[in-house]
Write a structure and sequence with these properties.
Layout (H helix, E strand, L loop, with lengths): L8 E7 L6 E6 L4 E5 L5 E2 L2 H4 L4 H14 L1
Bound molecules: zinc ion.
Zinc ion binds next to loops.
């Protein structure tokens, strides 16, 4: 039950394209996405991958570990 130890969301340093507040990276059981901490809009992960910060990287690493 390793998923219990992996966070379901993490605060990133990336900014919301709409309002400029910080984005969280979040996941459900089968997908990850970005969500604004302020306006709550959801965004696809893909456009943010090239600007991935450490929080995102660690989050996604744990996501992969969970799936093994
Ligand atoms: Zn926003």
């Amino acid at each position: 039950m390793s998923f219990l130890f992996a966070p379901r969301e993490a605060r990133t340093t990336l900014k919301c394209p709409v309002c400029g507040e910080l984005l969280d990276i979040r996941r459900t059981c089968h997908e990850a996405y970005m969500q604004c901490s302020s306006c709550r809009r959801r965004f696809e992960l893909a456009p943010f991958i090239s600007r991935m910060d450490q929080a995102m990287e660690e989050f996604l690493e744990r996501l992969y570990v969970d799936r093994v």
